[in-house]
Amino acid sequence: MACFQARLDRIESQRFVSLRDERGPSNGGIELVANTESVAEFLTNLRLEDLFNLPSGYVQMDPETFCGVSGGNKECVEKLRSLEMARLESHNGDSVLHLAATWGHSELVKSIVSECPCLVLVPNSKDQFPLHVAAYAGHSAVVEVLVATLTYVSAKVSEEKKERLNLYVVKDKDGDTPLHLALKGRYMEIASSLVKANNQASFLANNEGISPLYMAIEAGDLSLVKAILDITDDDGLEREKCSLDSKLEGRKYLAHAALKAESTGFFCLLPILFVQISIVSLSPNTRCFGNFIYILIKQKH
Fold this sequence. Notes:
Blueprint: H1 2-20, H2 36-44, E1 59-60, H3 63-70, H4 74-78, H5 82-87, E2 88-89, H6 96-102, H7 106-115, H8 130-137, H9 140-154, H10 159-164, H11 178-184, H12 188-197, H13 212-218, H14 222-229, H15 234-247, H16 254-261, H17 270-273, H18 288-300
């Protein structure tokens, strides 16, 4: 129990630091990006009073329940009382919601969230919440359900509690946010949904000093990079050029990531990408593409 409380305290402290210096949208940093028609019914059955009623202790999950939840068996979960469901933990520290999210059982995830919403806010032994494991596994339908849940409940709680619901900026033991994990698996659709839901995590570095913005550039996904930078016109380009350096954590050599991607689509972002470093630090690349970019940058300066 003490170990679990220590994990929660560490995560809460980390989330506060991340939020303190970030500006978010007026709705608490969470915007609905899920298909509301497909999730509305299970959300209306959700009891908000149970959301922050976190379990005080844990019970080892039996093999039958573990296999049932992993296999997507809703009947297995429906036999459990809400309190028991919240306390169940696998040998790896996963809750029943972690297991359902890991295996991509979106309908089961809805049932668990409706019956036991507090599990959305319970981390496993890796400091990963269900949103982390769903993003890591590449299950877009589960991510959609969890994003919709966070959106729905955040609209009904106080500003203080909204901060606790901002799981988008929470890092696991490797320093990865859900957005990091989606990009590591190259699940670009999920990454795009997470960016639309909350853009703050895009600039946070993991333990390796890498931000999701850096990863998106390295992956060559121009549309995602533009979404992260929130660029729709020339004014937005100039505005972001001034603010990016102050909020970007970790590696700031975005130009190097762009060179590695070898995408001509990033030409329009050169004023932003190369404002992070001096031209001297960019040695001419032996590859033809790299040399071309290098010359282009010199002309801009």
